[in-house]
Amino acid sequence: MIQKIDGKTKVLGLIGNPVEHTISPSIHNILSYKLGMNYVYVPFCVNKGMLEKAIDGARALNIEGLNITVPYKEQVINNLIKVTPLARQIGAVNTLKLTSGGYIGYNTDADGLNASLVKNNIKLNKSSIVIIGAGGAAKAVGMLCAREKCKQITIINRTISKGEKLADNIRQYYDTEIKVIGLNKIYNISPFDIAIQTTPIGMSPQILDNPIIDDKFYNKFHTAVDLIYNPRKTQFLLKAEKNGLKILNGFEMLFYQGVKAYEIWNDIKISEEILEDVMINILNQYR
Ligand code: ATR
Which CATH superfamily is domain 111-249 in? Predict the structure, then answer.
């Protein structure tokens, strides 16, 4: 995608394991191409036990920007000189920027989701939100909902104790009202506004799975968001759509978390026109 690699080409990359299915190289390489930046973005599959060596090596090679994905988003914090307050609250880092003393850690997942919600006219402020799941992805979602001053959060999770832990973590920073209920107790949930599905249930190749099969659940709210982007419509979104709800998948969150990382690395703000163009390019590539 870059025009040429020469002596001035800078490397950006993604550290994780596995990394084969990532679409981050497309996002960043198309951005560099459209912005005329001499960068190349590559995936690095780092084996268990090798993260520290990988970060040290990246620093020695002057790799200015890195994304971090599963399973290293929490562990990488030990290898950084500084972490932003938001990344500290979420307890996970997905973006590193090189400085003279080492890497600084950021988390762009929450802001990526926020950008995607804003673009699609979905307002967290003053809304009652149900978060399905209490894993790593749910942490960023919960912190974002609280930061945006939502009215109330209900965490639905299979393991109640994990839901309670997430609620306590959010309460450390915000005084948002938070309830936790088990996945098997959703029949008595009160009406709310937006459900955000954060578990891997329904993700390809398990596309027929759905964390919530009870039809009555889908009469209680108006907007369903699923962080999964493959398939484009999970069973959760299909059921929501069938019930007349507004739906949004995780593609734009993924896109905007990448854009935010790119903006951090280059200290720039990318225009909406360029972003639209890049997004269409990527959607065409994966159609
Ligand atoms: P991630 O970091 O991607 O969010 P995770 O930390 O493994 O992934 O969390 C996965 C979430 O999906 C958890 O909330 C998990 O529920 P538990 O806390 O009970 O483990 C939920 N999850 C995963 N598979 C599930 C399943 N088959 N049924 C119900 N919940 C499931």
Answer: NAD(P)-binding Rossmann-like Domain (3.40.50.720)
